[in-house]
Amino acid sequence: MRIRELLKFNLIDYPGKISAVVFVPGCNYSCPACHAKKILNEESLIKEDDFFKYLGEARQWVNGVVLCGGEPTLEADLIPFARKLAAAGIPVKLDTNGSSPEVLERLLNEKLINYAAMDVKGPPRLLGSITGTLSVPAQAVKRSIRAVAGFPDYEYRTTIVPVIRDEGNISFLTPAELSDTARMITETTGSSGHKYYIQKFVPRKDGLLDKRLESFPETPLPLLEEMKAEAAKYLPECEIR
User: Fold this and answer.
1) What does the pLDDT average to over 2-29?
2) 0.85 cut: is pTM over it?
């Protein structure tokens, strides 16, 4: 599998695990607020054999692997790669944008992923604006939401980003729009018992896909708290991360 970057030691991304984080190159989204600009380069910088060699040497302290990107579900070799990790008895967390439900369903059916984290970008009507693409239909996202709920452990999350709206106006995702997002998750799965995290947007100079957002402020805490109150009407386990 193509590996763009490797974070050898991480205490944050996989709850309860010391993980190695594999960054896969490329993505089918062009989110204006994306921080992973350098990961979108399709070049692979690390050999798969070198990764597994490191993992073998580090097993005394590394007890999990995170697959993220970019978008891992676009990788043709993702499932064989996950099979190798499963055969080695290493718990795997997958971060996904939910654009490839058929891949998530295969991973679920083969029991290859222990923890799935899906970025639910926003309500269906804003997917094009937030993702920078019109190529992923809302029904695919909803199908992925259903698949994610089947993994042994999972979460949904939404980053409260600035949205580039009609005529180039920019404003944060609103509480009503986040409420619609949370309601979509509940209605799609038929359950409100899901972990749901809302995250602040943090600007980064020379690091975002759309330079207009580099000078935009980070999401204010009062707005996040208002967002949490609205989302919790549909997903009571909502938390600010």
Assistant:
1) 96
2) yes
